[in-house]
User: Fold this.
Amino acid sequence: MLLKDIMTKNPEEVPVIESVMDAAEKMKELNVGAIPVFKNDKVVGIVTDRDIAIRAVAEGKDPKDTPVMDIMSRNIISCPENTDLKDAAHIMEQNKVRRLIVTDQSGKAVGIVSLGDIATKAKMMDIGFEVLEKVSEPSRPAVH
Assistant:
């Protein structure tokens, strides 16, 4: 099975200058936890509900005046749409990411795949649970 078989095609995007509040409202409307961020027709980041909570709300930033570029995750991991699902799952494990941007042959973003997509759409729960376990492992020791 390939990424193009399970990806969400042409996901909504927000421009880097969009406010955190507008992005959050779009996430609520679409019932999603992440939206790719673009500049000049290129994906340059992704804003997640966690980014909003940790990098905006917890730091006291005004969501009306803060652009998403100030809080977005910049570590974008992408894969071509013809990537095998098992290879994509391995990439997610290695990079400890829950979402992959899916690109066409020219490198243009054409979709997004989440850990949830792997677990539900792929019907390969063993891969989904293995990836979830690896992605969820803490990168550093827990602070007590």
Summary: Helices lie at 3-6, 20-30, 49-57, 85-95, 115-120, 125-136. The domain at 3-136 is CATH 3.10.580.10 (CBS-domain).
